[in-house]
Structures are given as structure tokens and as C-alpha cells.
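Late entry, evening session. Most of the bench is empty. Finally got around to the prediction I had been postponing all week. Sequence below, unchanged from the version circulated by S.P.
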Amino acid sequence: MGIVSTKLRNSAKGQTCTFQIPGVCNHDPATTVLCHAPSEVKGMGVKSHDFHGAFGCSSCHETLDQHRVEKWEEYFYWLRGIQRTQAYWQEKGMLIVPADKTRPKTSSKIMPRRFPGGEHDPRTGEVL
């Protein structure tokens, strides 16, 4: 059994389908659920982790579950759906990503001045 999160599952309600498969998607938020992507955890009667899911309408979900598109298309739509869904969760504070603090970039073009004959006092210009 994968990791279950009721909050992540419930967050799909009323959302736009993140797969949006052309010619398949019904664009009906009322049918959107959290669709579980294929993974090492998923198997017969076992779903993958909820954070390996994407918001999908009933039509796109059925198409992907029944493998009605080419394998490369399936991979593309799963990746796009998961990326869009995880971006939504991160924006809403439901998926926390420990990011590095931003630091001011130092310019590699600005080098400290070097004076022939030794170090100089930057205030007076005198040789130290």
C-alpha cells in the first residue's frame, strides 16, 4: 500500500484535469479525481503513493488506465499531469519542498583591486 493522504485526494475535487488529452478530455471538473500513476508500489489492488498522482477527468483517467494511447504519449501525459498537480500542491502549501535560501550572486567580473608593491588601505590609498 502506498502513502495515503486524504488531503491530497480531496484536493482534486472540482479541479481542472491536468492531463488534458486532446480529443479525449471532457473538461468537466465535476468528474476530476486523483489518478494514481504507475509506479513500483502500484499493482493489482494496490495504488501508488498519493503524491505520485495527478488530477484527471473521468475520460482521461479511463484512457490512461486502459492504455488507449501510445506508450510515449502515456508517459508524456502522466509526467505533465504530475508536474501540474505537484505545482498546485506546492503553491497551496500541501507539498513542502525544502528549497535553498536565495543568496545574492557575486559577480565574477568584479575582482578586488591589486596594487603593485603590496596591499593598500582602501580609504587612504597608502601602502600597508
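Two things to note before I forget:
Residues 71-91 form the longest helix (21 residues).
The beta strands are 33-36, 53-56.
Will write this up properly tomorrow.
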